[in-house]
Fold this protein.
Amino acid sequence: MVEFCGYDKCMIDGNGRLKLSPALLADFGGAGAGLVLRRLPEGCIAVYTEAYFQAMRQAGREESATMAATSALYRRKLRMINAMSFPVTISPQGRITLPADFRTYIGVDQSAEVVFAGVDYGAEIWSLQRWNEEQALIDDHMSLRDELEMKKDLDGLRIL
């Protein structure tokens, strides 16, 4: 099975909970598994396994104390990773609860439709509106890239 592929739409219930699809539930290790939610600058929420989140935090840990003492940029990186993250546990019913400020951050209320998108390292949770906007940005970028690639190729042929 290929983990963290595809996307699924689901509803946030009145208590701010999301039910994971059977595929995502399996990818994340089932009921009782610990996950970490993290706000991302793109306006979505990353969902990591605890092991992946710990590995992210451990990267470059050897010089962490020195860097934290001397670099404002490094301290901001630590805040971005740690302060913008929240641990959750998958309930026996296969649900996770999104904290209220995380729901506000992605622009949804209770009883809103969201998108769970698999992204290799885990999943992301998007409001349906922001997901559609992100897909339009990707489509526009790919079209522009293809046009530039074709122009470069045609320009190369004119030289010959």
